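How a chain folds remains the central question behind the approach discussed here. For one protein, we set the task of working out the structure tokens from the amino acid sequence alone. The sequence in question and its structure tokens are set out directly beneath this paragraph.

_____
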Amino acid sequence: MFAYGVLPPAMFLCMICFMLYGFPVAFTLGAVGLLFGAIGIATEHFHPSFLSALPHRFFGIISNDLLLAIPFFTFMGAVLERSGLAEDLLEGTGKLFGAVPGGLAYAVIVVGAILGAITGTVAASVITMGVISLPVMLRYGYNPRLATGVIAASGTITQLIPPSLVLVVLADQLGRSVGDLYLGAMGPSALQVLIFLGYILVLSLIRPQDMPPLPPEVRGELNAALVVKVLMGIVPSMALIFLVLGTIFIGLATPTEAGALGVVGAFVLALLHGRLNFRMMRDAVHATADLTVMVVFILIGATLFSLVFQGMDGGRWIEHLLSHLPGGPIGFLIFVNIFIFFLAFFLDFFEIAFIVVPLLAPVAQSLGIDLVWFGVLLCINMQTSFMHPPFGFALFYLRSIASREVKTTDIYMGAIPWLVMQLLLVVVVIFWPGLVTGLLDKGPAVDLDSVSIELPAGNLGGLDQPGGLGQPSFGGVPAGQPVIGAPPPGQPPIGQPQIGAPD
């Protein structure tokens, strides 16, 4: 553990201690980075000029066009939260499914998935569905633990369903395309929704008394008017989803441009619902500014911490520590997911993405793990940070809007089955990489054994001179010369498959 000295683990431990004490994450990262930067210069781990890279890193953060997607998607979600779309969707789908046991729970899951695909924010989904659905569920006999659990879990689907902000941040930290991570998340997010719906189906057969159907006088008749009302809520949502995700997938827009299109679409929907006014705009701008400033400050602090940590050989320490775990790549993945699961008790998903992921990505790549698969897997795991009793943010949001008759212990106990289902999806994705990589562009298949290079006979243009084709060579390359296009040291050779990569 101390093969690279005591400073890398001491730096990591110092950061954790300050966070547990309650200091703001962004300032903790920056302060620890500066403190150990001074220690690194004093102990001659690196020259003072090493820190001259900081201004360039800060400028790179501020000028990163990809990060513009964060305020765009946040602003879009803030506008939609106040547009009345969620209310129409929940009311219509609740009446549509209300005749069957668990009908309201089905409606909450379906609407949670739709809201996740158009808002990208957990707080908006949980609070909106909690305010509208929770009183109705409790009034008509739903078990409080089931009602609170399904609302909290349906809100956290937002973390995985594109256009998730977590996937944007992970793409930036892993150096991969946002579109690839969005495509890779489609399969797991669909499976997550199916697992939730299947759980409600099984529970409705075993314990129908916990989720009775709505009375006929409440749900009304299942007629054309009700179907039209539901479609009027779903069709604009589908149009907005295509406007944001479809333009990314077919290559018409970058994630940043798609976010801007989403904001325009959100304005149109708010206008159609008669909610577009100055007060709504002001609240949406404030919410977007708060989140954006938080993300930028955390990223600046994480960049300072990361630079000093690398100067202390912290990257090599992490790689040495994790690449020697038993079980190879699978053992690494299991350890990392357990580590992040417990880390999520204390850290927000932004903090995990900015602090931990840059340290894990080089190790994953050296083990031949596909980084798109790895990023989606981490995103699924970070969903659980919102459902952890007693620190889950989704549980805090629900507690803030639930009535006093709902006990806090009911909220915590109700979250546990849904937390287990999220962890089940983590296991499925580890042992079934194709769920993530199946939709990715695999590129043209090339048989390297069939590739040959033919040169014209006669004048070789100097290639028969010293160092040319007349010299001893290996694979057509003169002895002692570097192979152009060869993988850098430590990378898998060309043609060697990556674990989790498309075949």
